[in-house]
């Protein structure tokens, strides 16, 4: 059995576009808490940190995804985050579009693939309350580790500031 390696949160955030870094830190500071819809943007450098129409938010003009969010009424087969005893967590998040064969037809999925290729973390939000007072649990930051059968496998950072890299 191989030795499991880890990646540090600081290293991962440093690889992100400079404009993403304040937003990623903002979400990391709120890890494990419930927040309302973040509007206006809590980060002055970005007009938005999430998208209303899509669960995967790839800011205009960027190749990478900043946030993914799961809604209570999602038509997708997202799975609940699975927390481990070491504080890390895994989240299987379904791509945009129902057919895995169409993955590359959506810019958001292409962005997730770029996050995977370049080691850029995403912030993960899971809806806990529907309207009128919508709330999201900030699971924290995660690395996109793989894609299979329509699912992106995300590995979340522990409170010790590391995530599993394999």
Short account of what is shown:
The protein has 166 residues and is α+β, with helices and mostly antiparallel strands. It has three helices and ten strands; from the N terminus they run βααβββββαββββ.
Secondary structure elements and pairings:
Blueprint: E1 6-8, H1 9-15, H2 21-29, E2 34-36, E3 56-57, E4 67-70, E5 82-83, E6 89-94, H3 107-118, E7 122-129, E8 135-148, E9 151-156, E10 162-164
Parallel strand pairs: 4-7
Antiparallel strand pairs: 1-10, 2-8, 3-4, 5-6, 6-9, 7-8, 8-9
Care to describe what's here?
- There is one protein chain.
- This protein has one domain (6-158): PUA domain-like.
- The longest helix is centred in the last third of the chain and has 12 residues, at 107-118.
- The mean pLDDT is 91.
- It is globular.
- It is of the alpha+beta class and 166 residues long.
- It has helices at residues 9-15, 21-29, 107-118, and strands at residues 6-8, 34-36, 56-57, 67-70, 82-83, 89-94, 122-129, 135-148, 151-156, 162-164.
Properties at a glance:
single chain; 166 residues; alpha+beta; 8-stranded mixed β-sheet; two-stranded antiparallel sheet; 3 helices; 31% strand
